[in-house]
């Protein structure tokens, strides 16, 4: 089996409501959809959702890198040789994990369809039967966030991730408002998205939360400050998760060496796809670190890829792949049974791509052979 062509679609996924985190407000989500075709007529889909705040990649740069550099490097290659595919991509471009993830995901979709197996069977087999879905509360006024949490509890959600990262004491108001509304009915996780920046500000926030049962605190300091995370961990028994600070194996090694986190958030867009994510999970397992598979708010294509990784690894104990639930239109049909996700047994990613919606959402496109 050889890859014979690649089609690229630069799309913007419409959100039900703006998604607000510490460093940006998203009114829609820019995404690059990749369609690979082979000489055997098998078609595979992948996706890149770049974030210049996290990996330095933009929507436009990712499209052109895929078109002019990464795509040409893998045309003619056998997608079954996934290690070789990554080696070729790494030779022609340093970093750019979201762009590489798009091709990695599409190749795994091809492999699964070729072998008539779900992707999770290719990377360890199914370990988990289902995952509860965490509802993400974007930054807003405390009462508004508390009301949303209460509404979602009625829908069956049992865990919430509260997005904060503006002013520390205002963030404490948000957290306490949600906690007081859903205490005893749901667990609370706090994601600062680097917004508290320093160890001093973070410790100030932690002290203000001492009387609240927090499941974990995620990435309070700047991404590159792994020493800061290690220092905070030495000063508190609150469970700490690293997200933006973990991209690949080098950062994971440093996190392990410095005892900088209790948990890590693996995202396919940060590390380069399914194969690198699987390697990170195994690396964390050797160090006794629990993992989550997170999201850059992706469509059904990349979200399903993340779920396949999560379902195949025993030390992945939570998922946060709720992008499709936030979109008013999606290019795929990943099925959620709120408040749970249960994968089907269809080959490849196990989803169907709606070509009509893909065409409707496309801003610009191209094909290389």
UniProtKB/TrEMBL annotation:
It holds the Pfam family MR_MLE_N. Binds 1 Mg(2+) ion per subunit. The keyword Transcription does not apply. CDD domains: L-Ala-DL-Glu_epimerase. It comes from the Bacteria. InterPro entries: Dipeptide_epimerase, Enolase-like_C_sf, Enolase-like_N, Enolase_C-like, Mandelate_racemase_C, Mandelate_racemase_N_dom. Residues 142-239 form the Mandelate racemase/muconate lactonizing enzyme C-terminal domain. Keywords: Isomerase, Magnesium, Metal-binding. Its EC number is 5.1.1.-. Its cofactor is Mg(2+). SMART domains: MR_MLE. PANTHER family: O-SUCCINYLBENZOATE SYNTHASE, O-SUCCINYLBENZOATE SYNTHASE-RELATED. Belongs to the mandelate racemase/muconate lactonizing enzyme family. This is Dipeptide epimerase.
